[in-house]
Design a protein that fits this description.
Protein name: TRAP transporter substrate-binding protein
InterPro entries: DctP_fam, SBP_TakP-like, TAT_signal, TRAP_DctP_sf
Keywords: Signal
CATH topology of the domain at 171-251 and 313-348: D-Maltodextrin-Binding Protein, domain 2
Shape: globular
Radius of gyration: 20 Å
Number of strands: 11
CATH superfamily of the domain at 171-251 and 313-348: Periplasmic binding protein-like II
Largest sheet: 6 strands, mixed
Helix content: 40-55%
CATH class of the domain at 171-251 and 313-348: Alpha Beta
Number of helices: 13
């Protein structure tokens, strides 16, 4: 078997890890999947900018894992150096930096680029949208990746899935949210189309990068924030400023993180290095989702038992209204331009199929499991 054939197989193997649950576990310190030896006499140096604070759990380390996997799998012939938000460019400047060639690649949430095109929202998360497994299925097999290539390609970028936080919580609030009226005048950090839903509810959506959120809560600039889930939220200490923790969230049911590469840089790579990057992104995507599932469960216990966090759930009336607004907000994206419409239609069809399968598989199983184990 020649090395190009092997690399092609390695790419498929990395993707299949996500469906091989129960066959083994992988610690975050494990090495990347083995790859064939490549020419170590030449080393390509690439710079990755991110939208995350340095060494931030889950989000920042997903970027680090992509870089580590690429370095290891290439035998050192492809070396990626990771820069946290603010080290080269600000968090929300990462896309332009890669598009123009100031940096070679970014690791980010694609909905940060909705100002470029609202279609980018679908490649992170949309309100009442797909879960992590569903968006992975759409991108890998349902035509999502091809549409993502077309959209990002308009800006000189090639993108891949490279992390997923799983289901996200509804957020931290300084006061209880009991009725729809409680959203009026609420100043909340919430990005993407979730922010559009909040505005329709009468609130004010504020765009802040991760490092800006806690000070804004502390000084009263915002009244509430969503971020990710227990693991990341505990790390930021939001419970000290906003005691009410709501979940589940409606706005990000399974948030995909993206790796974007300058198209000229991507095209300049040989096929072996391209295959390595793609395999590394798949491996990091799988590891990220598993790590969030594990760490969120642990962090939730800490928040409840050590810090006395009060868990809350939105009422059914709130869910019904949010659901109706969400469907309209997401559908409005399709009116932006022909490509956004094709992305929306593909996404909606894939979500429909996944719902039909989920309604006879995971959803009823989870209910029955809780009936048996929850008493």
């Amino acid at each position: 078997m020649d090395r190009r054939t092997f690399l092609s197989g390695a790419t498929v193997a990395a993707a299949s890890v996500a469906t091989a649950c129960g066959q083994g576990t992988q610690d975050s310190s494990d090495s990347a999947p083995a790859a064939p030896a490549v020419n170590r006499n030449r080393t390509r140096q690439l710079r990755m900018v991110t939208t995350w604070p340095a060494n931030f759990p889950g989000l920042g380390t997903a970027a680090d894992n992509v870089a580590r996997f690429v370095n290891e799998m290439s035998g050192g012939s492809l070396n990626i150096r990771v820069y946290a938000a603010g080290e080269i460019v600000g968090a929300f400047e990462a896309f332009d930096a890669v598009s123009t060639g100031t940096a070679d690649m970014y690791h980010a949430a694609e909905y940060y680029w909705q100002g470029k095109s609202p279609g980018f929202n679908f490649f992170t998360a949309v309100p009442m949208g797909m879960t992590a497994q569903e968006i992975m299925a759409w991108c890998e097999f349902g035509g999502g990746q091809e549409l993502w290539d077309e959209l990002a390609g308009e800006f000189g970028v090639k993108a891949f899935q490279a992390g997923n936080s799983g289901h996200q919580m509804g957020g931290w609030f300084k006061r209880e949210i009991n009725t729809l009226e409680d959203f009026r005048g609420l100043r909340m950090r919430i990005p993407g189309l979730g922010g559009s839903v909040l505005r329709e509810l009468g609130g004010a959506a504020v765009a802040l990068s991760g490092g800006e959120i806690y000070p804004a809560l502390q000084n009263g600039t915002i009244d509430a924030t969503e971020w990710v889930g227990p693991w990341n939220d505990l790390a930021f200490g939001f419970y000290r400023e906003a005691p009410y923790y709501y979940g589940p969230g409606f706005h990000e049911p399974g948030s995909c993180l993206g790796l974007g590469i300058n198209r000229g840089v991507w095209d300049s790579l040989d096929s072996d290095h391209q295959a390595i990057i793609q395999a590394a992104c798949r491996a990091a995507n799988n590891q990220s989702l598993a790590e969030f599932q594990h760490q969120n469960a642990i962090a939730l216990d800490v928040l409840r038992n050590d810090h006395g966090v009060q868990l809350r759930a939105f009422s059914d009336d709130i869910w019904r209204r949010v659901g109706a607004i969400s469907e309209q907000v997401v559908a409005d994206v399709a009116n932006a331009d022909p490509l956004s419409r094709r992305i929306y239609e593909s996404y909606a069809e894939s979500r429909r199929r996944s719902r039909e399968w989920g309604n006879v598989s995971e959803f009823p199983y989870a209910q029955k499991r809780e009936l048996v184990l929850g008493g």
